[in-house]
Amino acid sequence: MVVLNMQPPADRQVMKQATSILDIKDLTVSRSGKVVLSEVDLQISKGEFIGLVGPNGSGKSTLLLTILGVLKAQHGTIEVYGQKPMSRSILGKIGWVSQAAAVMPKSVRITVRELVQLGTLNSRNMFWLRRGAHREKVDSAMKMVGLEDLADHDISRLSGGQRQRAVIGRALASEAEFILLDEPLVGIDRESRNSLLMLLDKLCHEENKTILMVSHDLAAIRQTAHRMIYLEESIRFDGLTDEFPDLTSLAGLRGIEPVHGHKPPVQETIVFEAGDDESDFTEEDIWE
Fold first, then answer.
1. DSSP assignment of 210-237
2. pLDDT tens-digit profile of 129-154?
3. 10 Å Cβ neighbour count for 159?
4. What fold characterizes domain 10-93+177-287?
């Protein structure tokens, strides 16, 4: 049994609040004429590991894309390291790992090293690279994700968990300090999932990276993240993981009333440990 217990001590939580890297105020975002995010206020400090949860269509991916600057806000402000999204001064500071990042056609022939190298490219060095510094960044990123021994292996030969590590390595090669992950646990087995969560925790604690991760695996999020945010158009909960609401309270947050005219019996609190069968219990089981 693998037990993931990654909560930081109280003094570490206080220390992290000193350096804010993301500041969102009264944010409203629409897509295809429909309001997806409304009146969102959010602050994230350096070194935090935050789990972002919510039902399908609640705006989780939209929030990440707005932080990146891919989507524009209709109202409110958003600052990353004190700058607007996509500002040149924060180029490379944000690493993005999308849902489909580790899914590649078998016809694509690329090694782990070549994939990680892509993270070092940007508009300023695309046609001119300092080979030494470039290689050091790639080697360092592969070491951080534990793939240095697989550097020359083809991506198609790796497991799902190893491919996720590789795309995270690509983000780290850009020397990103703030890493956004959208459903990184989908499609990987239990052992790979636990290994990936340990890696993210190590990046947070030892490399002082800041992580915002969207996931439907509620059990995994509760075992790893320092802080949890429940989003459904607006933020309904934002607090320490240990304080995250139980199932009955979550239903109340969503405005779901008992269909039989009475309140459900009080449920015993169950602590899921990653590695147990219960760790396959996902957020879908709650939201749907």
1. EEEEE-S-HHHHHHH-SEEEEEESEEEE
2. 555 557 888 888 888 888 999 999 99
3. 13
4. Rossmann fold (3.40.50)
